[in-house]
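During the second half of the funding period, the structural biology subgroup turned its attention to how the target accommodates small molecules. The most pressing case was zinc ion, which had performed well in the primary screen but for which no bound structure existed. We therefore specified the complex as follows and requested a full 3D prediction, including the ligand pose.
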Amino acid sequence: MATPKLVLIPGSLVTTSGTYRVMHSTGHLGDAECVLLKDTVLPRCGKDGCQVTFTLVTPHVSEDPDFKDA
Ligand SMILES: [Zn+2]
């Protein structure tokens, strides 16, 4: 399944629950992965001048149409 890359920035709403790779523009922190849930407002980095981007790595199982409610 080819999914277009979803990249989100602080202040925007998470549209797809899943695992995201977090990257800091200034590199003061290494890349990390975190789970973000739909409708969460993305936080910004507390470090001055640092832009964070959140890139979707793996959608949450609830976003996968192959799975149905039990
Ligand atoms: Zn940062």
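Two results from this model are relevant to the next phase. The radius of gyration is 13 Å. Residues 1-43 form one domain.
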